[in-house]
Prior knowledge:
- The protein contains one helix and 38 strands.
- The chain has one helix at residues 341-344; strands at residues 7-10, 14-16, 19-21, 26-35, 41-50, 61-65, 70-73, 80-83, 91-94, 98-105, 111-121, 126-129, 133-135, 140-146, 150-153, 161-164, 168-176, 179-190, 201-204, 209-212, 218-221, 229-232, 236-243, 249-259, 266-271, 274-279, 288-292, 298-299, 305-307, 313-321, 326-334, 346-349, 356-361, 370-374, 380-385, 390-394, 401-408, 414-421.
- The longest helix has 4 residues, at 341-344.
Amino acid sequence: ASPMGGSYQSVGLNIIDSLADISAGGTYEITYAYVDSNFCSAAVSNTILVNETPAINLGTTSDNCEGDTLFLETGLLGMDHLWSTGDTSTIIQIVSSADYSVTVTSAEGCEAADTIVVIFHEIPLVSISGDTVACANEVISLEATSTASSYLWDSGETTSVISTSSPGIHSVEVEENGCSASASIELVFNPVPVVDLGAEIDSCVGATVLIDAGAGSSYIWNTGDTSQTIELTDAGTYTVTVTNEFACMSSDDVDVSFTEYPIASFTYSMNETIVTFTNTSQFNDLGSYMWNFGDGQSSSIISPMHVYGSYTDYTITLIAENSCSSDTAIENITILDVDDPLALDLTIYPNPTAGLVHLNVNQAHLNGLVLTVFNMLGEELKQVAITNVKQSVDLSGYGQGVYSLVFRNTEGLYYHHTLNVIR
Length: 423
């Protein structure tokens, strides 16, 4: 027997008060050394064999989905196993939720045990509700109902309710506790009728307009008609709703107007050689006009003014024309010569001119004397106050042609002169 009071030493072991902390199997040499009060020493060594304890790690928790199969194994071959299920193999098959444990014994009789919590979560339920057939101009609302809380549609949307106008198969996937399920639905969008009544229709009074709504199964017009085509003689807005064999509907409308045939007429007033024409034609607001003044000149102005160059008879023609027809009004007028004392004391030269006109006027007629220049359409171009007995007027800014010079003063004296401008 060894005396008390000595010390233990070993390579690879931590020994405190004769207790060794052995954390791994293996062969260890332990030495006990003793020194007495006379400083005499003695030592003794012994070799011990420590067998390995089986190392098991099943994990703490395993989450699975119903219908899955879980395999638990230790990986420790050549050792005895005893599972809580009664199985004795190294690997077992699990299909239900529970706490599972295993005890493993090595050939040297060393034991180890471990436990794992296995959960099999329910597969979430999911279904899709909503119409499966609609018309191409409609939208279908689909709703997914599920025990899960997350949704993912094939469109990328993540809400439980979506709206779509796309035909084909639509699917949704739901997930809860890592377990997923999906549902799908097929949608059909039937075509709608093609209804095109065209652009605005304008016809002539007395004509009949035929409107065709196109192919369909049934028709309803705002006139009450139920045929594919209707004949119209009244202006207005006409609407039709067409239904096809799929019970899909489409509508369109068109404005129809009827233009009256024009009636040409005019009145006129004369001031010496200046004639003002007033167009009194009817039913031609959107039409055109053409005047012929009987002196080789014409105009398309609605109500023109014209200056005549000679005292004679003229035949005036007005043509009023619209999309339905044209009408002509004819009047004969006479431009009378008047007593013109101003002309006796007024000289105008040169005529023709390149633009500059010289005037010689009697001093007695200068009282408020004004020159007004007109073109052959009767349009007033210029007014000049004549204040000197000798004065020049520049018409070089106007193109080549015939111009009317009309002189008036405050005494009521009047003179008309026709001037040719050349280039």
